[in-house]
Amino acid sequence: GTTELTGSTNLITHYNLEHAYNKFCGKKVKEKLSNFLPDLPGMIDLPGSHDNSSLRSLIEKPPICSSSFTPLTGTTLTGFRLHAGPLPEQCRLMHIQPPKKKNKHKHKQSRTQDPVPPETPSDSDHKKKKKKKEEDPERKRKKKEKKKKKNRHSPEHPGVGSSQASSSS
Amino acid sequence: MAEKFDSLEEHLEKFVENIRQLGIIVSDFQPSSQAGLNQKLNFMVTGLQDIDKCRQQLHDISVPLEVFEYIDQGRNPQLYTKECLERALAKNEQVKGKIDTMKKFKSLLIQELTKVFPEDMAKYKAVRGEDPPP
């Protein structure tokens, strides 16, 4: 029959996906995961296989856990009494980036309400300096990457209606 | 449609932020931070509880496994959508080309057959009915 849906119809138009097509194929989509989730802390652009954080491993070997969520009580919390002092370098979460500009105001506000007492002045200066140093090379690298991306030609996008001789519906 | 994701997104953001703060506390621990640490540990539990509650609203949502490949490689999952749409259009065009070629071939074949076997082709057309033009 000739009324059945075949490849001779523009299926993107048929399924009302023109808007989606233009949105994703009409302009450049940024490459990195961090472009999609800019506020997520940590080095999310690293492959999941490197630090055992892959979604694939979650599916292939789902963790065995109970079905209930019980809050930690006094006795269970004793296991979390920590020793004072800084962690050794390799355990330090140095790769955790501070939140981007938008959240920094929120972050500052929450700090004043935070039950955690402020660090000693010498420590906080040291940390602030360290954080700034980390940020600057990161920012420079990101700026360089942005410049490189801008210089590339933008990809030609095929017109949606270009393949058909007759319009559908 | 997007509203049911908003709640989940909000819970996830709060959960992640809590973990991030935990990391900061732990990286240079002071005994006076113990209470705060305990509070945040318990927020991890309630946070997971809240995320789990979101499941009901989203039970009908399916995620293609191929997207996970992109995420695991640190790539934007929107590239998956983009590549799906591009492949769909390319395949669409390819198949349309084949269909058009076959239609042309059919009409040419009928034309030539009619020249050689006019009576038989007249019977054929009577049985088949008039085909619409390609």
From TrEMBL, chain A:
Main location: nucleus
Cross-referenced PANTHER family: LUNG CANCER METASTASIS-RELATED LCMR1 PROTEIN (PTHR22536), MEDIATOR OF RNA POLYMERASE II TRANSCRIPTION SUBUNIT 19 (PTHR22536:SF1)
The family this protein is said to belong to: Belongs to the Mediator complex subunit 19 family.
Entry GO terms, CC: mediator complex
Function, in words: Component of the Mediator complex, a coactivator involved in the regulated transcription of nearly all RNA polymerase II-dependent genes. Mediator functions as a bridge to convey information from gene-specific regulatory proteins to the basal RNA polymerase II transcription machinery. Mediator is recruited to promoters by direct interactions with regulatory proteins and serves as a scaffold for the assembly of a functional preinitiation complex with RNA polymerase II and the general transcription factors.
Record keywords, A-Z: Activator, Nucleus, Transcription, Transcription regulation
Name this polypeptide is given: Mediator of RNA polymerase II transcription subunit 19
GO molecular function: transcription coregulator activity
Gene (UniProt): Med19
Species for this entry: Bucco capensis (collared puffbird)
GO biological process terms, semicolon-separated: positive regulation of transcription by RNA polymerase II
Disordered, as annotated region: 94-169
Composition-biased stretches (Basic residues): 98-110, 140-152
Localization annotation: Nucleus
Subunit comment: Component of the Mediator complex.
Entry-linked Pfam families: Med19
InterPro entries in alphabetical order: Mediator_Med19_met (IPR019403)
Recorded superkingdom: Eukaryota
Automatic annotation (TrEMBL), chain B:
Localization per record: Nucleus
UniProt keyword Secreted, yes or no: no
Pfam families the UniProt entry points to: Med10
Main localization of the protein described in the UniProt heading: nucleus
Cross-referenced InterPro entries: Mediator_Med10
Entry keywords, A to Z: Activator, Nucleus, Transcription, Transcription regulation
Cellular component, GO annotation: mediator complex
One GO MF term attached to the UniProt entry: transcription coregulator activity
Gene Ontology biological-process entries: regulation of transcription by RNA polymerase II
Subunit structure: Component of the Mediator complex.
Purpose: Component of the Mediator complex, a coactivator involved in the regulated transcription of nearly all RNA polymerase II-dependent genes. Mediator functions as a bridge to convey information from gene-specific regulatory proteins to the basal RNA polymerase II transcription machinery. Mediator is recruited to promoters by direct interactions with regulatory proteins and serves as a scaffold for the assembly of a functional preinitiation complex with RNA polymerase II and the general transcription factors.
Entry similarity comment: Belongs to the Mediator complex subunit 10 family.
The protein's name: Mediator of RNA polymerase II transcription subunit 10
